[in-house]
UniProtKB/TrEMBL annotation:
Keywords (A to Z) from UniProt: Cell membrane, Cytoplasm, Cytoskeleton, Membrane
All residue ranges annotated as the PH domain in the record: 303-412
SUPFAM superfamilies, per database record: PH domain-like (SSF50729), Ubiquitin-like (SSF54236)
Localization per record: Cell membrane; Cytoplasm, Cytoskeleton
PANTHER family given in the database record: AMYLOID BETA A4 PRECURSOR PROTEIN-BINDING FAMILY B MEMBER 1-INTERACTING PROTEIN, GROWTH FACTOR RECEPTOR-BOUND PROTEIN
Protein name as it appears in the record: Amyloid beta A4 precursor protein-binding family B member 1-interacting protein
GO biological processes: signal transduction
Domain Ras-associating: 173-259
Length: 474
């Protein structure tokens, strides 16, 4: 429309002494580029020698008003289509071509004088329901560009996310661990820092096919210090193993430790240890559950009230002295003055935040301990003899188990009880599965009764087939 107006203005200025006789529209064949069809229209105005002064100013003003209104309406329509256009560029049906590339549009109304407004037949505007190809192309070019840019940004973000995940995975510590089994064999596992000891135990259950009772534990042994410690189920195995030196002779073992969760099977032996052992042995299960609930299910875990005389090794010497010890949740306290029980004389020997408790072997020979029932408290990074290790010795094995278990409760608290419940649940599930497997195999191996009318000589063949089927099923 703008081109038509400009063309009319030029013709009006250059042909004041000529009259407009008609308007020709040249429509060349359409051009297809990238599946988009382009239509071009050329308008040629033919003038005659008649003077344009015959045209009245009112007619020219009316024509200009109509053209401006059409331009405004078209621009509003383009804006509306651009806002609502969200999909791909639709391909409009190709209109039928005229019989000739040239057509004369002249006024056919003879009852009224020919004027500028009715003598020029302008191309009709596209209907509202069918937008023109040019408008669709323009709108599509504006809407497709943001859509493509959004796709590119999304792809770029996905690549960055994938790269970060791979980088994070590469930073995860991984160790190849050789685990020794009680029967002398060994299993090799790939363990990363996200796996807990409970996960490693489950993997070893699958590899060794042993019974899944709660006493199985992954332990570390240190030949230099002659110590052994069972890892707690919630610990990450990679962290303590990373503290080992390159030339270490430490080993990881998979074995049963009865004292691992003994406190939850018989809590009366640890919390009521001062009472008569015979009365504690006959305690009912209901009373045991109540005792556990009182000490582990409250706002804070109650540590067993342990106290008594233990042997303490002097720093830098192989001499052992009897000292009075007291266990509290904050740490292990003792009296440097001997067996006195006065609270004002108690001194904190060690706190449990950064130390672990280890069982010791043959300390009577190595350090001239009074007995072989010894345990130490040390930081996990200490792998050789050090002045920061605290050596203690007990009179018997039960006293040693009592103190070691009490220290574990003071250090780990309710987490220890949660580990036990998880172990019991998994052990019960594996036992149920094992019972079902045994029942299925036993039912499959049971011989069926011999049908009547058949020879008994065929019975062994039928039984053999059923047994073979049971073996295949297992």
């Amino acid at each position: 429309l703008v081109a038509i107006v400009r063309d009319i203005d030029v013709k009006t200025e250059n042909t004041e002494n000529h009259a407009l006789s008609g308007c020709y529209i040249l429509s060349p064949p359409p051009i297809v580029v990238n599946n988009v069809t382009f239509f071009f229209y050329f308008v040629h105005i033919v003038t005659s020698k008649a003077s344009l002064h015959d045209l009245e100013d009112n007619d020219l003003d009316a024509l200009m008003a109509d053209l401006v209104a059409d331009i405004s309406a078209t621009e509003e329509k383009f804006a509306t289509e651009r806002d609502t256009f969200t999909g791909s560029v639709p391909v409009a049906p190709i209109p039928s071509q005229p019989q000739s590339n040239f057509s004369l549009l002249a006024s056919t109304d003879t009852s009224r004088p020919a004027t500028f407004s009715n003598s020029i037949a302008a191309p009709p505007l596209p209907p509202a329901s069918k937008p023109s190809k040019v408008s669709l192309f323009l709108n599509g070019s504006h809407t497709l560009r943001p859509h493509v840019e959004e796709l590119e940004e999304q792809m770029k973000a996905d690549k960055i996310k994938l790269a970060l995940e791979k980088l994070k995975e590469a930073k995860v510590k991984k160790l190849v661990v050789k685990v020794e089994i009680m029967d002398g064999s060994s299993k090799t596992l790939m363990v990363d820092e996200r796996q807990t000891v409970r996960d490693v135990i489950d993997s070893l259950f699958e590899k060794t096919h042993c019974d899944c009772n709660v006493d199985w534990s992954v332990c570390e042994t240190n030949p230099d210090l002659q110590t052994e410690r069972g890892f707690e189920d919630h610990e990450n195995l990679v962290e303590p193993l990373s503290t080992w030196t390159r030339d270490t002779e430490n080993k990881v073992r998979f074995q049963e430790k009865i004292d691992k969760y003994e406190v939850f099977r018989n809590p009366q032996n640890f919390y009521l240890w001062k009472k008569d052992k015979k009365s504690l042995k006959d305690m009912k299960d209901k009373d045991k559950e109540q005792l556990l609930e009182e000490n582990f299910c409250g706002a804070s875990v109650i540590v067993p009230d342990l106290e008594g005389v233990l042997y303490l090794k002097e720093d830098g010497k192989k001499s052992w002295k009897q000292r009075y010890f007291l266990l509290r949740a904050s740490g292990l306290y003792y009296s440097p003055k001997g067996k006195t029980k006065a609270s004002r004389d108690l001194v904190c020997l060690v706190q449990f935040d950064n130390v672990n408790v280890y069982y010791c072997k043959e300390y009577r020979i190595k350090y001239k301990a009074p007995t072989d029932h010894c345990f130490i408290l040390k930081h996990p990074q200490i792998q050789k003899e050090s002045q920061y290790i605290k050596y203690l010795c007990c009179d018997d094995e039960w006293t040693m188990t009592l103190w070691v278990t009490g220290i574990r409760i003071a250090k780990y608290g309710k987490q220890l009880y949660d580990n036990y419940k998880v172990a019991v649940r998994k052990a019960a599930g594996s036992e149920t599965w094992a019972n079902r497997t045994i029942q299925a195999s036993s039912s499959a191996s049971t011989p069926s009764p011999t049908p009547k009318g058949r020879d008994n000589g065929a019975q062994p063949i039928i039984i053999k087939c059923i047994i073979d089927l049971a073996i295949l099923t297992c």
